[in-house]
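Objective 1b. Sequence-to-structure analysis of IclR family transcriptional regulator.
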Amino acid sequence: MVVSGVGVLDKSVAVLRTCAESPCNLNELCARTALPRATAHRLAMGLETHRLLVRDPSGRWCPGPALAELAADAGDAVREAALMVLPRLREITGESVQLYRREGTQRVCVAAMEPPTGLRDTVPVGAHLPMTAGSGAKVLLAWADPATQRALVPDSAFSERGLLEIRRRGWAQSAGEREAGVASVSAPVRDATGEVVAAISVSGPIDRMGRRPGSRWAADLLAAAEAIHKRLTHA
């Protein structure tokens, strides 16, 4: 843990990071942060008051919407570039489009747009999704560091060999992995240095997209990812 010398700040950040890695109740929070029970409870309740933490349906603390709002307000070059590209991708596909970033062992939706009509795969901005299922997870994990891959692959819906194939092909697809009845296809987004910093996705009902959505939308998705990369390169 990074130490700033401001005790209450360091402890608050430790609570935030712990809950971002995996939602936890008070007992789990104390065990994972080594904070006294009263301190952990006080900090978590304070962060919840400011909407930096919220409770999931099981009562565990997880990252709250204020985090995404603060990030958006601070400015994000990748997100801003994506927002210039996502509308056209949505128009071409007629489906939901998203941009994901990896945060620890989860992926976070940092931008999303929905089609005006029809069934949608609604993923709200700020939503934390697993890194163990779905095409967006596959892309982010395919270009993640080896230690992260080793930690997550055993519990994933895909294998190391599958990730190697995704790196070779340049995109990933899924059908019913993250959510029953939903298909998606994703591609890596690279920054100006060529590093993969996000995944751009198209998702929608399997009935419309089919069980191999990449055969239909991979080329358009790769073009959109390249358009974001060019905007970042010339920013």
